[in-house]
Specification:
With 129 residues, this protein is mostly beta strands. It has one helix and six strands; from the N terminus they run ββββαββ. 8% of the residues lie in helices and 43% in strands. The chain has a five-stranded mixed β-barrel with strand order 1-3-4-6-5. The chain is globular and about 45 Å long.
């Protein structure tokens, strides 16, 4: 089974392109924190969306936005500008879920973010679930 779910921040604004056949496509990268990492390590994943989903992403998602993506991984070969053939792994996006943008979740001086919720980092052991 080849199914991937990721949640992360978009690393740059998404631009919509069209294939020679007129099909809408966009490529973008998301930064995802590695789970259980004591150093808060981050991985960057290249994602590709097609057709109406590509249009939606290019209109509603900007750099720094937190999004969830669901899809499958595939390998693609291409020749670089130096003529050397390379293989890349990309996530073909089937579905997205919107989360908050980075600017909407920045903390206020009182420690409560602009959504009205208090930051509970470091208090995971006190949660009832």
């Amino acid at each position: 089974m080849n199914s991937v779910n990721l949640m992360g921040r978009v690393t740059k604004d998404i631009s919509l392109r069209q294939t020679p056949n007129g099909v809408n496509v966009c490529s973008f990268s998301i930064a995802v924190r590695r789970p259980h990492s004591s150093k808060n390590e981050t991985d960057f994943f290249t994602c590709v969306a097609w057709r109406k989903l590509a249009e939606t992403l290019s209109v509603y998602v900007k750099k720094g936005d937190m999004i969830g993506v669901t899809g499958y991984l595939y390998n693609r070969k291409h020749k670089g500008n130096d003529g050397v053939e390379r293989e890349v792994t990309e996530l073909n996006v089937d579905d997205i879920s919107f989360s908050s943008s980075k600017s909407k979740t920045q903390e206020t001086p009182s420690g409560i973010n602009s959504d009205g919720f208090e930051d509970i980092e470091g208090q995971e052991d006190d949660l009832p679930f």
